[in-house]
Each structure stands twice: as structure tokens, then as C-alpha cells.
Design a protein that fits this description.
This protein is of the alpha/beta class and 461 residues long. It contains 18 helices and 15 strands.
Length: 461
């Protein structure tokens, strides 16, 4: 059982206060972390509000001064510890996060795995850290482990084929209270919610040449395996298949991928550990952790993060209906983004790939699309991908993505983004495998040159 220094202090902070504002990041990990904190406080009959945000800049921090009660930051805050100390000196603050902290000492409580020998990139998510606090407050909060697993999957902490390290302790808690089950199965998106034909034809990560975006070809592929499209007058979903049908389907898909040029490194990701929330309705996005996380990301990246929080806290009515509609729009925008990149191409520098989608792809989507380019075989896996967009305020947003092969060779995108951004007067940071930065548009070329140099130093030193 985890026993970090700071866990007891964080739990005591929650127990001692009466009025809180929870501030969470706007992505799936931040949404799940916010919901876990909210459920914990609700069960304690504490007064609380939840707000979500993309970032903590000076303007947003000043607005926090006006909020009532003590502040709990979840999945955000570690990179702005000095700013919190300077701009919110009179507030009682607890930061529960998994990103690398700006510094190791603080005037307030910081519960962070990097301070105790764990890596927030793959050992535990922001939702996981928040879950540990909730469990420390009350063992009965173990049922919230399922939401923490959704957060970890949303943060791509299962990208090595399974959850690792502290995430497995959370998974064990979820299994012990019969909230979640893990098993080895296909990892394509839509295994629960999509009819089998759409399951294949909508696949963009990985991209399946000749099947993706071609319903008729998918029907022929499925029928060639002796698998029906319907059963009892209903479209078959992948989860409806028998064990034998699943084995035939996966084997045939692997052979098809090899014949059609899908890289072996991508094909190896087809099968791995999947996580089912067993009390959720079958054939819905909420049953599968990956689909649930994508639903939450759709909410956050379309400025509706609180819909996701409401769903995680139990709303299966209006909030879920609205989020499901958002998800369809989100997936279409991702497919459109991949197609735009395929049409307009990728700029290849010596040590990085660059996608300049300024004013074309939303700044909230460019990172997701950049990460999908490996699976879509748009770029090789030999370099990190740097995606560029511009937000509504005219700030250039940089999102970088890598893969674990590059990380194992020494790549740390968090450091690359931070140092490259600071060299041009911007800000940046994040994890070794995924990070971001904000800069002025006129500094783009200077930033890219510096990022290219930093990647060279890390991978070819």
C-alpha cells in the first residue's frame, strides 16, 4: 500500500476544512481527479465547488483569490508552485498532482509522486493521486478506484500494453470491490459501443489501409471470417463475439495489417490489457475505460469539462446524453484532423516532425492528433511529433508527443518543451512522453530550432 510522505497531510487538510474549491485540469485525467475529489467531499458533507481550467496563468490565479474556502488543485498546479505562493499567499492550498513539480519545497501541501521516487508519466495519474487521498480519508472510497483507472487510461498510462506500478494497486482495489475487471483483449477504440463494421471502418489509431473509412470492405472482411454482421436482428458489437470469434478476428486483423504495411510496432499494440467497469451498462462508452476516457476528453476539449465531472459523479441522464453527442463531434474532428495532416504533409526536421496547423486545428485537439500520427502511419516512430496551433487569444500552443521507444532512449519532452519555450520567453513543461508549451507566434521558428537541438542532445549525446 502506498505510503508517501504528504498523503497523511493531504488527507488531514481535507478533514480539517469545511469549505473548498476544487480546481482541476480540463482533460480526462483532470476531470476524473476533480470528480473523485468531489465525491470524497460530498460523502464527508463538506461544502465545495469544482472548476476546471486549461492552465494556471497569472490572470486565472488572480481570479482564484475571490473563491471561497480552501483550494484543492488536482492534476494541475505542480508547475506553478512559485506563482501560487506569490499570488495566493493568504489561501490554504493543497496540490494533488502527478506532473513534475517546479520545486521540491513549498509553503503549502504538495502530494506528488515525483517527490518520492515515482514517475507521474506512467506510474500514477492525477486521478490516481487524488484517489489515494480519498482512500486515506475513508476506506469506503475504494469504489472510486474505477474512476481513477479511467483517468490513468485517459492519460495514456497503459500505452505499454497495461497499467504499471501504482496504477496496479488502484486496479487491485477496484477488482477487490467488484467495480472493475481487467483482461487481455483487443485494444481498438469502440469494442463496447460500436457495431463491428463501424469498429473497423472508424479505426484511425491504428489506420487500417483498405478498411478504415470503407464500410463495404469491412463487411467483406468480417464475412470472410464466418462472423455474422447481425445476431437476433441486432448489429453485432465486438463484445458480443464468442471467444473463438474474437480469436479469429484478432488473428485475421493482425495478418491483414502485416500484408498491408501496418508497422509491426503498431500491430503489437492491437492486443493488451483492457479495463471494464462492470456495473456500467454493456455496449456503452461507460463500460470500457478507454471509451469512457475518450468521452471525457471530448467534454474537456470542447469546453464542457463539467459535463464529464457530472458523469463521473453519477449522472447518466442529461449530462451523459450531451456528452455522447459531443463525442461524435469530437471523433469526427479527430478524423478530419488526421486527413488534413495527410493532405498537407508533415515538415521533417532532422530530429523532430512538425505539424503546423495554426488556425486550422483547435489548440485543444492538436496534441491528440499529433499522438495519433504514429498509429495512422503518417510518421515513423523514430522522432517526436511537434504539433502547432493558435488559441482564441492569439497564443501559439505547442503540443508534443513521443513513444516509449524514444523515451527509453532518453527523450524527455517535458524538459524539451520547458527549455525551448523559456528560450523564447514562453512557458512549457509536461511529461517525458507528452508535453506542451505556449509561445508568441513570431517566435515559432526560433522555438523549433531550439527544440530540434534539445532532442538531438537527449537522443544522440
Amino acid at each position: 500500500m502506498v505510503d508517501f510522505k504528504g498523503l497523511e497531510e493531504a488527507a488531514s487538510f481535507v478533514k480539517a476544512g469545511n469549505r473548498f474549491t476544487v480546481i482541476g485540469h480540463y482533460d480526462a485525467d483532470g476531470i476524473t481527479a476533480s470528480a473523485i475529489a468531489g465525491q470524497m467531499l460530498k460523502r464527508m458533507k463538506k461544502r465545495f465547488d469544482i472548476v476546471t481550467t486549461k492552465q494556471l496563468d497569472e490572470e486565472r490565479l488572480k481570479r482564484l483569490k475571490k473563491l471561497e474556502g480552501d483550494l484543492i488543485f488536482v492534476d494541475i498546479g505542480s508547475g506553478t508552485i512559485s506563482d501560487l505562493e506569490e499570488l495566493l499567499p493568504d489561501k490554504n492550498i493543497c496540490v494533488i498532482d502527478h506532473h513534475k513539480p517546479e520545486k521540491r519545497q513549498s509553503n503549502f501541501i504538495v502530494f506528488n509522486p515525483h517527490l518520492f521516487g515515482y514517475d507521474g508519466s506512467n506510474d500514477v495519474s492525477g486521478a490516481g493521486m487524488t484517489y489515494f487521498v480519498a482512500r486515506e480519508v475513508d476506506e469506503r472510497n475504494k469504489d472510486l478506484s474505477k474512476i481513477a483507472i479511467v483517468g490513468a487510461v485517459g492519460d495514456m498510462q497503459d500505452s505499454k500494453g497495461r497499467l504499471l506500478s501504482l496504477n496496479r494497486e488502484i486496479l487491485a482495489d477496484g477488482e477487490s470491490v467488484s467495480e472493475i475487471e481487467s483482461k487481455i483483449d483487443i485494444r481498438l477504440f469502440g469494442r463496447q459501443s460500436r457495431p463491428l463494421v463501424k469498429f473497423l471502418s472508424y479505426s484511425s489509431d491504428p489506420f487500417l489501409p483498405g478498411l478504415t473509412a470503407d464500410d463495404e470492405a469491412c463487411k467483406r472482411f468480417i464475412k470472410s471470417l464466418g462472423i455474422p454482421l447481425y445476431r437476433d436482428n441486432k448489429w453485432l458489437h465486438y463484445v458480443d463475439l464468442s471467444d473463438d470469434e474474437k480469436r479469429r478476428f484478432i488473428s485475421a486483423l493482425y495478418v491483414y495489417g502485416r500484408k498491408n504495411g501496418v508497422p509491426d510496432a503498431v500491430l503489437k499494440t492491437l492486443v493488451g490489457e483492457v479495463y471494464e467497469l462492470v456495473k456500467e451498462k454493456e455496449r456503452t462508452e461507460l463500460r470500457d475505460a478507454k471509451e469512457f476516457a475518450t468521452l471525457l476528453n471530448a467534454c474537456g476539449r470542447h469546453d464542457k469539462a463539467m459535463l464529464g465531472v457530472e458523469i463521473c459523479m453519477g449522472d447518466r441522464g442529461e449530462a451523459y446524453r450531451k456528452a455522447s453527442n459531443l463525442l461524435q463531434r469530437h471523433r469526427k474532428m479527430l478524423r478530419d484532423g488526421i486527413e488534413w495532416v495527410q493532405k498537407h504533409g508533415v515538415k521533417e526536421m532532422k530530429y523532430i516532425y512538425v505539424i503546423d496547423a495554426s488556425y486550422v486545428i483547435k489548440d485543444t485537439l492538436i496534441g491528440v492528433i499529433s499522438g495519433m500520427l504514429y498509429g495512422a502511419s503518417v510518421v515513423r516512430r523514430d522522432k517526436p511529433v511537434i504539433g502547432i496551433s493558435v488559441d482564441n487569444e492569439g497564443v501559439m500552443k505547442i503540443s508534443s508527443r513521443a513513444n516509449w521507444e524514444l523515451v527509453r532512449k532518453g527523450l524527455d519532452l517535458g524538459k524539451v518543451m520547458r527549455e525551448a519555450a523559456e528560450s523564447v520567453g514562453g512557458t512549457g513543461g509536461g511529461h517525458n512522453i507528452a508535453a506542451g508549451a505556449s509561445i508568441r507566434p513570431e517566435k515559432k521558428e526560433q522555438f523549433l530550432k531550439k527544440a530540434n537541438e534539445l532532442v538531438r542532445e537527449q537522443l544522440f549525446r
